[in-house]
Design goal:
Elements lengths: L1 H24 L12 H4 L6 H7 L2 E10 L4 E10 L4 H23 L6 H14 L4 E5 L11 E6 L2 E2 L7 E5 L5 E2 L4 H10 L11 H21 L9 E5 L3 E2 L8 E9 L5 E4 L6 E7 L8 E4 L3 H4 L4 H4 L7 E4 L4 E8 L12 E11 L16 E4 L3 E5 L21 H13 L16 H6 L1
Parallel strand pairs: 3-6
Antiparallel strand pairs: 1-2, 1-4, 2-3, 4-7, 5-6, 8-10, 9-10, 10-15, 11-14, 12-13, 12-16, 16-17, 16-18
Helix pairs in contact: 4-5
Length: 438
């Protein structure tokens, strides 16, 4: 009895552990972006695994003519069916009919032929779902009639007796090219073993990166200038406008300082994590513009997967108590709006990284991660191309004298005669005849 109890307890513990591990594998919910920011204006982009989980219905379909209910969708292939009991009830008669036909063939001692199987598959695809319609919302548009597409639908709206299934097309990931249907089928077959970092198309990955950068920019705007973090400090040394290019291009030199009692690695690879925060003088930090260093000569034409490959050369070592500098260049043609800057601005350089370098060969410790922002330093811009005037040092003015002392000094200046100029010395010049006689 004790042995059986031990086995049951062990099984229960294993089940609890597996459930906890599976629950822990799910990504943490993303924080909501601040209202009015760029991150709030961008739609949330899902990975392929998240998209398959979110979609209530996934079909390969062809758009038919639109009517008052919406654009009808002719289902060509069903990839995922809704879990709604009402929908299952609608599809049960079709499945029962297919099962009855198959049982009748088996009862007669006949094996289904290839033609019968193809007919069965076509019948199943045509009758497994009731009528389907979609309705566009926001910036989305339903394709023209006759266009085929892969539909990921999750926002269901009220239907009618003729069209029980109606969905709203309101997200850019609701509609894909039909060529992605095979990839989606393979992903559905893999289930929980699917890589949760992969996107279905390149556009999804680019938009996800843009959204992540927008959220990071909001964090940079809210970050305290000149603050230390995790034993590291960042200073701005010399912001300068370009002398040879009159288009507001500028550069900033930032200095890392290691305040820890040990050596520190930090990520310094091709995906630059450096940038600046620009805001108009006396303006609120929320209005600041965040610019990131662009390494076009290094990263242009390289896909994101290649850039994410790390090795030891992507990390820099900063000894304890030492400093190192980096010069950040910002060319106006590469950054929208820099050429139009005009007036006095406050500039703060920043460095932000989440790359720890786990698994990188020869990296004997994890790299530093966090966000550093320098103190704000002034920098003048001019959209008409004129260079700022160099200001010279002016000594402080003397304290003003009282009214009585000023009158006495003026009277003394009038009565006292001006000092006589020294008499000019007359040097005699010997005549030329005297020189000749000598």
């Amino acid at each position: 009895m004790n042995r059986l109890t031990s086995v049951l307890l062990a099984s229960f513990c294993c089940a609890c552990f597996c459930a906890a591990a599976e629950e822990g594998a799910k990504p943490a919910p993303k924080p909501a972006p601040k209202a009015g920011s760029e991150a709030a204006d961008l739609p949330e982009i899902y990975t392929l695994a998240e998209l398959l989980e979110k979609a209530d219905l996934i079909v390969l379909g062809e758009v038919s003519d639109a009517d008052g209910i919406g654009s009808r969708i002719k289902v060509l292939d069903l990839l995922k069916q809704p879990e709604d009991p009402a929908v299952k009830k609608m599809t049960e008669p079709a499945r029962e009919k297919l099962a009855e036909e198959r049982l009748a063939l088996l009862a007669a001692g006949k094996e289904p032929k290839a033609e019968d199987e193809q007919k069965e598959e076509k019948l199943k695809a045509a009758t497994v779902l009731p009528a389907l319609a979609v309705e566009a919302a926001g910036r989305m548009r339903v394709p023209a009639a006759g266009t085929q597409g892969l539909f990921f639908l999750w926002e269901r709206i009220d239907g009618s007796k003729e069209v029980p299934l109606r969905y709203r097309l309101a997200h850019p990931q609701c509609l894909y090219d039909p060529s992605y249907a095979a990839t989606a089928k393979v992903a559905l077959a893999r289930g929980r073993f699917l890589d949760r970092t992969v996107y279905l198309r390149d556009w999804d990955e680019k938009m996800a990166r843009r959204g992540a950068e927008a959220s990071a920019d909001d964090a940079i705007r809210a970050h305290a200038a000149g603050a230390d973090e995790n034993g590291m400090r960042l200073k701005a040394l010399s912001p300068r406008r370009s002398v040879h290019r009159n288009d507001n291009s500028f550069s900033v030199v930032v200095e890392f300082e290691n305040l820890l009692g040990r050596d520190v690695y930090f990520f310094d690879g091709m995906q630059s994590n450096f940038g600046v925060r620009l805001r108009k003088k006396d303006a609120a930090p929320e209005t600041a513009v965040v610019l990131r260093v662009k390494m076009k000569n290094v990263t242009e034409g390289v896909d994101g997967g290649t850039l994410e490959l790390l090795d030891y050369g992507d990390f820099a070592l900063l000894a304890k108590g030492k400093t190192c500098t980096r010069t950040l260049y910002f060319d106006a043609p590469d950054h929208l709006g820099v050429k139009e800057l005009d007036g006095e601005y406050l500039v703060a350089g920043f460095y932000a990284s989440t790359v720890e370098g786990k698994g990188v060969k020869n990296l004997n410790t994890l790299a530093w991660t966090g966000t550093l922002l320098t103190q704000e330093v002034p920098l003048a811009f001019s959209k008409d191309g004129t260079q700022p005037v160099q200001r010279r040092y002016t000594p402080p003015k003397r304290a003003a004298k009282s009214e009585g002392e000023g009158e006495k000094d003026n009277a003394a200046a009038k009565t006292e005669p001006a000092p006589a100029a020294p008499a000019a010395q007359v040097v005699p010049v010997e005549p030329a005849e005297a020189k000749a006689e000598k």
